[in-house]
């Protein structure tokens, strides 16, 4: 009999050690994140690490690029307007020749228009590209510039005020206007239109319903940017921001909130890297896709919402798992220590403690796997 208290104490000690094993606690977070990231890949979301899901969960604002993000990224030339002696066909031919050395969406659209009209490229050399502003080249012995108004003015070319009304009407129609200058004078303009993505408006609306601030960040003319923003419901517009300045704008916004940047071009890469979360689309440039934390492989803007819902769902599971692990330890450890032994004569044997410990771990893993049965894109923005 003298050995019974010692044996009982040993059994209780072993039971406490077994029941206190933090297996469930250690599985609570990684299992949920593993399921969340794997579900993301199944739904066309390339999520680069479990910490990315946490970043999505913390967002307070979303910044959108315009061309190729809110729009489909396939602009078309709608207007080719010349003044002076040059004909519209010659204007288009010169523009296509200057753009032949670039892969910018606007340049590709101009080249495509010239090909449709069977206009051959002219002899050109000394190409120079100013990212986000324009291009220039020597075309058959003449210096030709093609770009936005500000850049051409910086090159010493000015626009006749008589054309302001025409340019204004093109801008208000949401068309991007590029100016062509020859030998020191602006000879005409080309206007290009890019259609909105079909899911752009509902994506922006859903983000705003969830209390996120939505911002349009673009290098385009303010009137063009405002026209696009009004179509999708964005009220805050930052226009005429050069590629080199986008990262600085994002950094300034980060002083008051955590923001995501959604973009697709080389020009967006610094801003994608600077943002708390970078999101790129499948058709983006390699640089943008490498820089982004999430790549929307389905090329659907609505997947921004899907990513947010997946993050919220994952963190619900993490919280549920942690609450279960905490509750399990709170009740099971005192029982293993024999708190019910004096009053009810109940105690947990080491074998029973091992069973409870295994059950706790299985419960956490099972709860994480239940995430697979949730429908994302529809989850309300509550956390518990």
TrEMBL record:
Location within or outside the cell: Cell membrane; Membrane
Keywords: ATP-binding, Cell membrane, Membrane, Metal-binding, Nucleotide-binding, Translocase, Transmembrane, Transmembrane helix
Keyword flag Ion transport: no
TM spans (from-to): 12-35, 322-341, 347-371
Nucleotide-binding is among the record's keywords: yes
GO molecular function annotations of the record: ATP binding; ATP hydrolysis activity; copper ion binding; P-type divalent copper transporter activity
Protein name: Cation-transporting P-type ATPase
